[in-house]
Amino acid sequence: MSALLTVEGLVVDYGRGPDATHAVDGVGFELHEGETLALVGASGSGKSTTAHAIIGLLPEGAKVVGGRISVAGNEILTLRERERARLRGSVIGLVPQDPTVSLDPVQTIGRQIVEAIRLHQGLPRHAARAEALAVLERVGIDRPKLRLSQYPHELSGGQRQRVLIGIATVNGPRLVIADEATSGLDVTVQRRVLDQLDALTAEDGAAVLLITHDLGVAADRADAVVVLENGRVVESGPTARVLGDPQHPATRRLIESAPSLASARDRPSRVIAAEGTDASPLLTVEGLRKEFTLRGAIGRGEHIVAVDDVGFEIPRGQTYALVGESGSGKTTTGRIVAGFERPSGGSARIDGELITGARGAALRGLRRRVQYVYQNPFASLDPRFAVHEIVAEPLRSFGIGTRAERRERALELLEAVHLPPALATRRPAQLSGGQRQRVAIARAIALEPQLVVLDEAVSALDVLVQRQVLELLAELQERLSVSYLFISHDLAVVRLVADEVGVLRAGRLVEHGPVDRVFDDPRHPYTRELLEAIPGTAAR
């Protein structure tokens, strides 16, 4: 049986002439109908570049200079752009990684799905809208009628990613390229999304090219795995063989660094309060409640309780993790603790001092004691500033030191997060994702805070960089006695880094306790559901 997708000797260069770099160098593989193939590798290994070459959406400055790509009998590299455009959506569907960039911020969700349907199916607008509603229901979005009239910024990150998955699959493509499509999703939503991709292959005979840094996902979902390193294929074959008996050092490094495949003995060093240290609570949260009022044509005036009677404590120098599905109230809780949101009820205190509702000088003082690290460092770092200016920004804001002293301190902070001084003059766009996240961490510790809120701070990183950042956080915690509120949908990572964990569902804390107890002996059915959904469970 001929392959649906054939890639032979693919070479993609960035730049031209003697300065050209082979981002992809001789890559080849086949994918048949009804199969799922995972492309895995560290950041910069050529995974996404290969995928974008297949669909004909390489970024500016990148060019295919050799090889062959065939999809459903179409020789992709010989087609004109108009012919390639006809294949996108109807024959090849792409689920990109970043919904913030991929969805039009000034168009409603419904309009964007309808446009994709009408472009390839030619349905009248009312029929296309009915199909768009069905799409949102299939990908598991709650209140789909409301979501059709909302804009991307009104949806959570997980909801936006599900919209993209719906758009990619609505026209029944024969090949779906999922480029880190579930990296930003919580485990239960991730499982539903991947179940849908599996159903697509079973019902329509479509194939899935899964680009992922999560080897747990590859272990559970892929029939075959191709491992890339520095743009080359270093190992490939059936998933069970490649992940069960890896032959290449690059494959072994990826497996050793994958939290979803790690056992207890594989854990990186995790900070536990040392004997004799002060274990009194630094942060105390009691009865926290937050209500939001919906705006827009549908649902106007409706109240949503995002956080409902949440309470926990974080001792000095320890890590408390909040886990739960998208929309469970994790980020809202973190933003209240950091002073970015005002609660509707309840309180949060640091060292007994009330921080919820702080204003003026009290709020400014809170900024020195509590810092925030976001999921997407590219969006949270000012693209106009050099790295040393970004790191020194909190010092400048609080009038600490002279300009020369702040620059010197910025270099010390970069060294603390294991970044070379040569990066100090670069802009964020010139850094890798892992480097940008290290810069964000350096900025967060510049004022020597007592608490750092880490909001999905490692979820978008490949497993090798993720492990490095987690080790860095453990090192900084041990050295600075800083406490972490670790917000994450990745329960495999949480088990590696947290001392205590709280499980949120629909804004309520349904279970909490020491991480080993909660993971080994979960008391609540929802906790058990989350744990069963961790990718890679079947492979362990």
How would you describe the overall organization of this protein?
This protein is of the alpha/beta class and about 550 residues long. It has a domain at about 280-375 and about 450-540: Rossmann fold (3-Layer(aba) Sandwich), CATH 3.40.50.300. About 40% of the residues lie in helices and about 25% in strands. Helix 15 (about 385-395) runs parallel beside helix 17 and helix 16 (about 405-415) crosses helix 17 (about 435-445). The model is unreliable at about 265-275 (pLDDT under 50).
Short précis:
The protein has 540 residues and is an alpha/beta fold. 38% of the residues lie in helices and 24% in strands.
Give structural attributes.
alpha/beta, 20 strands, 540 residues, six-stranded mixed beta sheet
Topology, please?
Blueprint (H helix, E strand, L loop, with lengths): L4 E10 L6 E11 L4 E5 L6 H9 L6 E10 L2 E2 L5 H7 L4 E4 L3 H4 L6 H13 L3 H14 L5 H5 L8 H13 L5 E5 L7 H18 L2 E5 L3 H7 L2 E6 L2 E7 H6 L4 H9 L23 E13 L9 E13 L3 E6 L5 H8 L7 E6 L2 E2 L5 H10 E4 L3 H4 L6 H11 L5 H14 L16 H12 L6 E5 L7 H18 L2 E5 L3 H7 L2 E6 L2 E7 H6 L4 H8 L8
Parallel strand pairs: 3-8, 3-9, 6-7, 7-8, 13-18, 13-19, 16-17, 17-18
Antiparallel strand pairs: 1-2, 1-4, 4-5, 9-10, 11-12, 11-14, 14-15, 19-20
Helix pairs in contact: 4-5, 5-7, 15-16, 15-17, 16-17
